[in-house]
Amino acid sequence: MRHTTTLTSNKHLLGWVEEMASMCQPDQVVWCDGSAEEKKSLTDYAVSKGILIPLNEEKHPGSYLHRSSPNDVARVEHLTFICTPTKEEAGPTNNWMAPADAYAKLKGWFQGSMKGRTMYVVPYCMGPLGSKHSKVGIELTDSVYVVLNMGIMTRMGKGALDMLGATNDFNRGLHCTGELNPERRHICHFPQDNTIWSFGSGYGGNALLGKKCLALRIGSFLGKSEGWMAEHMLILGVEDPDGNTTYVAAAFPSACGKTNFAMMVPPRRFDGWRVYTVGDDIAWLRVGDDGRLWAVNPENGYFGVAPGTNWKSNPNAMKCISRDTIFTNVAVTKDLQVWWEGLDGEAPEELTDWQGRPWKKGSAEKAAHPNSRFTAPATNNPMLSPRVNDARGVPISAVIFGGRRSNTIPLVMQSWNWAHGVYLGATLASETTAAATGAQGVVRRDPMAMLPFCGYNMADYWSHWLKMQKHVPYPPKLFMVNWFRKDKDGKFLWPGYGENMRVLKWIVDRAHGKVGAQETLFGWVPKQGHIDLSGLSIDPTRVDEATAIVEAEWKTELEAQKAHFEQFGERMPKTLELIRQTLLSRIN
Ligand code: GTP
Ligand code: SPV
Ligand code: MN
Description:
By secondary structure, this protein is of the alpha/beta class. The protein has 3 domains: about 1-50 and about 80-225, Phosphoenolpyruvate Carboxykinase, domain 1, CATH 3.40.449.10; about 230-300 and about 385-550, Phosphoenolpyruvate Carboxykinase, domain 3 (Alpha-Beta Complex), CATH 3.90.228.20; about 300-380, Phosphoenolpyruvate Carboxykinase, domain 2 (Beta Complex), CATH 2.170.8. Helices cover about 30% and strands about 20% of the residues. The strands form 7 sheets. Strands 1, 4, 5, 6, 7, 8, 9, 10 and 11 form a 9-stranded mixed β-sheet that branches. Strands 12, 13, 14, 15, 16, 17, 25, 26 and 29 form a 9-stranded mixed β-sheet that branches. A 5-stranded mixed β-sheet has the order 2-3-19-24-18, with helices on one face. A hairpin with a 4-residue loop joins strand 30 and strand 31 (about 525). Helix 2 packs antiparallel against helix 5, helix 11 packs antiparallel against helix 12 and helix 15 runs antiparallel to helix 16 (about 575-585). The longest helix is centred in the middle third of the chain and has 17 residues, at about 210-225. The protein starts with 10 loop residues before the first helix and ends with a helix. About 50% of the residues are buried. Bound molecules: guanosine-5'-triphosphate, sulfopyruvate (SPV) and manganese (II) ion. The site of sulfopyruvate has 9 residues, from helix 7 and helix 8.
């Protein structure tokens, strides 16, 4: 099999592509340049093969529907591996395979796997083009759907190759859709080799290798040795009526509200306030020359959860998906308009569901898959921060950790200090969601929302977080939030979405030392009346319930954290366990 390209003469790259192609044996190798013509011809091809279905051109210009295999609808954490030389380097919260074993096993699967198919060479850059902090990756894939998604989610094409030049400094990503057989599906990371091999899934975080695989798993590993941090965080800028903008980063687990918070529209009471989106999923954090922590969003688009998105909950997301968007596993109307649970208005009488089957209103089954998604370019966002392409990023004044918890965790709490904030992040727990396969609604520890994304031992990751304090003379203040506390009937106590602005305002004021706080046994909370509730029609007792600290619940919580820490043995930073014991002793 022969192939040529005029796009690069990089010997490292050409040699590696040749090697991978001779293993996978595609019929042809196509180099992607990221041009508009290329996008059009790939799209036309995908439509001709039924991989993409054109949507209603009037309602959804330039937009398409993709239906994935019903067995391939979310990340597969049990099939995701960190392949470090020793198991200890991956730690107890990651699946581990010895690198030699993983390469051998997957070589067996990749061998001849692209016969009759095309291998696309997808060069991409995570982070602004030309920035020394950005990372170049090359993804080899046999999926045209992956290519088109990478074209939206990353700076894809010739610009990335130009950045790479003749160097060997690129992530080697190999992806093959295979037969979509869950028995032959693995997502393997080789941090020491800056390599990712993904076989047997075409979906999201399993297949778009720039996102979770490179920007978080490999990224967190690189960050540890290079002195920066790769985090599962949104980044937003909140501008007050005087025009001062404060930047905030927030880590919430998958499908726990990052996209919504990053695109929030402040309620009427906050006339003159604006929220700008820098990123909705991933933040790369570095210490700036001025001693502050600066954040860059390495992505270029949004791979967002569709269900629950509507004109009331997230009007900016609705604008983001108004054109040039790929929808995956949503339902469609007869005239090819998209639909999902939680979209505005009543469900239509009849739909075609996410699997292409007829669906009738009132059906017990969901029409859209709970993890159905949209892939939309960041430039569609009317509130896109003008700083997104700034290589320095934006200076972060507050970092927020938040989970999906029906009880215990109050609406908002500020840490005493950096170490206590790291403790709050390290003990973050959340109910599982449809973003990964497996049981949903089960509370599990998801430290810093990074449980599925940390590319090395979580205890070492916490040490890295603790150590960062020394390198950040002007650190952000650390907070935790919970939008998801429920009353005894199982209803959310706090209205959430745009109303979260009321909580954000307190956080920003605290970060600037503008407002007081109430000391509790476990952290700082707003004083009575400090969360502005004007113009909000909600029974104030519900807010009291949402913000309450119930000692008995905290006792259970703190005791449950013991086993979480113990699994890390000697590597566990003592500071965090001592903080846990201190907090517990305050109740006892
Ligand atoms: P990933 O893309 O998986 O990392 O998810 P994400 O953190 O960006 O989550 P997203 O903003 O897409 O929200 C996921 C789900 O949570 C959606 O169904 C939302 O409607 C719901 N949600 C988001 N914010 C709130 C909130 O403030 N309150 C409530 N009750 N639900 C929310
Ligand atoms: C998540 O699961 O946190 C996502 C979606 O952002 S995926 O790209 O599939 O990881
Ligand atoms: Mn995510």
